Amino acid sequence: MSRDTITIALTKGRILKETLPLLAAAGIEPAEDIQTSRKLLFASNRDQVRLLVLRGSDVPTYVRHGVADMGIAGKDILLENNGAGLYELLDLGIARCRLMTAGLVGQAQPVGRIVVATKFVNIARRFMAERGQQADIVKLYGAMELAPLMGLADLIVDIVDSGNTLKANGLEPRELIAGISSRLVVNRASLKMKHQPVQALVESLAAVVAAPAP
After folding, report:
1. Is 191's pLDDT higher than 80?
2. pLDDT of amino acid 109
3. Residues 102 and 136 in one domain
4. What are phi and psi of 93, to 5 degrees?
5. Residue 79 counted as domain residue
6. Which of 50-59, 101-110, 168-177 has the lowest mean pLDDT?
7. Higher-scoring residue by pLDDT: 112, 105
């Protein structure tokens, strides 16, 4: 592998599905079908670019440690990890959603010390502290909507897309914490040591993002 090889970490799932057309428009395509393969590391049509497919929560770690030179991850993941050690260079404008608090429909806003269930522990803690709200944070990895229903928590902090899942479980969105979309992040050392190829890729993706929709 050449010293100038660029490794791009991609987030599997919805973000990957929306990322691949952007990469293709920028002239980067995997050498085989990422969506059907069980592999996690892929060559591309460009000799000096390879693609790594990861869980979203792992993308910042791989980029921060320089295993990947660049990565594409949701803003929610970057906020949870404080974006430490990374340069966030581009909003790709894909996989848009909202990070919000939610509670039971019609239930009054809780007062005093509350319990918040979420997988975004750091975000929730900062958000509640900024509002002067004392809160105990319970970390869950899924099925957030059950927490208020079963009396585990007063509120949840979670990603909201259409809001249909909340509605189906008797919950409603409350406060907006942040608008979320996928971002391009770069390892600081890679930006310095591989500046030319990294910058060329950033500019190619920026041009695709800025182009008017067909």
Report:
1. yes
2. 78
3. yes
4. 70, 20
5. yes
6. 101-110
7. 105
Confidence band for 214, pLDDT divided at 50, 70 and 90: low
Residues 103 and 83 in one domain: no
Claim to verify: residue 169 and residue 189 sit in the same structural domain? no
For residues 59 and 157, membership in a common domain is answered with no
Does the structure show a pLDDT above 60 at 3? Answer: yes
Residues 110 and 78 in one domain: no
How many domains are contained in the chain?
2
